[in-house]
Write a structure and sequence with these properties.
Distance between the termini: 136 Å
CATH class of the largest domain: Mainly Alpha
Largest sheet: none
Order of helices and strands: HHHHHHHHHHHHHHHHHHHHHH
Shape: elongated
Radius of gyration: 47 Å
Number of strands: 0
Length: about 450
């Protein structure tokens, strides 16, 4: 018995050591010591630096004493209960939030009127903003949208303070602000209404907003004389974009309590919708904005503008058309086409009108001095080609530039590059060198 106890305690005996066996133990002691030796080989450890050596392992009941892994042999070797199952621990992090606290009525600190005893029910209450506040908050969002043109950003800003009951005020404010802006902004407003449809307001909200705008139309006309025409464009465009049902226009046309501007707007909207292929044409009802248009289209519009001005002589209408082009970076083409038209017309009255037109553009700063000089310089560069179609181009150019210099000051770069002679002239033509003297006088 003493030998067995010593063998069981000294599990870390060396592998080559021979077990001590008394004579009376017999084969049973030998087989028991061999089993212990084979068991010790299973727990042998090796050190990679010192070579393979036999190291005495800890007993099984010692090596597993402080382990928190499951004893059943299953699992991934992780601690039980996430490391929160040991003695004297507080539990897993955040476990205190999952515990349900139940108040005891027998507790001396129990309050029968407390909100946690189950007698009080909480409900979500949404505070409706005042109409004036919604309009006040909507204005900067709309003006900012006119700058960046991002409808998603505008929708997110609107959803922060707009509720379903007051969403019609957003549509109403968009139209009112667009009435005071350019056609390109009206196009952006129509796109914004179309993108906000179904996200911020519904078709019913849009219809109610236009009903309120029709009622306020007499007051809007005082600030914007074309408010009836613009509002009819908005109504027709919303119908074309499927944001407003067509029966809205029909029901408003049958109403008897409409004011005169509102009836005019509804009648014009009906006309726009009843045109052949009207829904397709309404996509471009505000025109293509500014630099988005092709260059050839812009040049064509500039030429029509100048011809209409020569026919009518209405300078104010011509200036309005120039502003509606919204292409300040392309005004040099306007100057170029104006000078070219003066050379091709060979008419003193047309030259006078076109010089007055350029002087008004220069005076009102619609065309900058840089754009004005660039237009004249382009004409001077192309004179070798222009003179092939207009043989008297150099004579007319001298006369027209003298007229422009009399009405407004031309740039120094233009005067320096002004040609003295386009071709060889003879005394028989009647100029007698007057062209050269006149050019020198202009330079001075």
């Amino acid at each position: 018995m003493d030998v067995d106890r010593s063998d069981s305690e000294n599990v870390a005996a060396e592998e080559n050591a021979k077990p001590v066996v008394h004579e009376g133990a017999g084969d049973a002691a030998t087989s028991h010591s061999e089993r212990l030796r084979r068991k010790n080989k299973k727990f042998a450890r090796s050190n990679s630096k010192e070579g393979v050596t036999n190291v005495a392992p800890l007993p099984k009941y010692r090596s597993w004493k402080n382990s928190r892994r499951p004893r059943n042999g299953h699992g991934r070797g992780l601690p039980k209960k996430g490391g929160a199952g040991g003695k004297g621990v507080w539990g897993a992090p955040g476990s205190e939030l999952l515990e349900e606290f139940v108040e005891d009525a027998n507790d001396p600190n129990y309050d029968s009127e407390a909100v946690t005893n189950g007698d009080v029910e909480f409900k979500q209450v949404i505070v409706e903003a005042e109409p004036e506040e919604i309009v006040r908050k909507s204005e900067p969002v709309i003006l900012e949208y006119f700058e960046h043109g991002d409808t998603n950003a505008a929708a997110e800003d609107f959803l922060e303070f707009v509720t379903a009951k007051r969403s019609h005020l957003v549509c109403e404010t968009i139209v009112e602000i667009a009435l005071d802006h350019k056609p390109s902004h009206c196009e952006m407003a129509s796109v914004l209404i179309s993108d906000l449809y179904g996200r911020v307001f519904s078709a019913k909200d849009i219809g109610y907003a236009f009903e309120r705008l029709l009622e306020k139309l007499p007051d809007l006309v005082l600030d914007t004389p074309d408010a009836a025409v613009l509002l009819s464009n908005f109504i027709a465009r919303c119908v074309a974009d499927d944001c407003l049902p067509p029966r809205f226009v029909q029901s408003q046309a049958q109403a008897t309590d409409l004011n005169a501007p509102a009836r005019q707007a509804i009648h014009r909207a009906e006309t726009l919708l009843s045109m052949k292929q009207g829904l397709v044409r309404l996509d471009n009802i505000w025109g293509v904005g500014g630099g988005i248009r092709p260059v050839k289209s812009l040049i064509r519009q500039i030429q029509l503008l100048l011809k209409e001005y020569l026919t009518s002589g209405d300078l104010a209408e011509a200036m309005r058309c120039v502003r509606e082009l919204e292409v300040p970076h392309f005004h040099h083409e306007l100057v170029y086409e104006t000078v070219l038209l003066a050379l091709e017309s060979i008419n003193s009255s047309a030259e006078e009108s076109l010089a007055t037109f350029l002087a008004e553009l220069r005076r009102s700063v619609v065309v900058s001095p840089d754009q004005m000089d660039r237009g004249f310089l382009r004409v001077l560069e192309d004179m070798s080609d222009i003179v092939l179609d207009v043989p008297l181009a150099y004579i007319v150019l001298d006369r027209f530039m003298e007229l422009c210099q009399h009405k407004f000051r031309l740039g120094d770069a233009v005067l320096q590059r002004m040609p003295t002679r386009g071709r060889k002239r003879y005394v028989s033509e009647g100029d007698g060198g007057a062209i050269k003297d006149h050019a020198l006088k202009l330079r001075e």
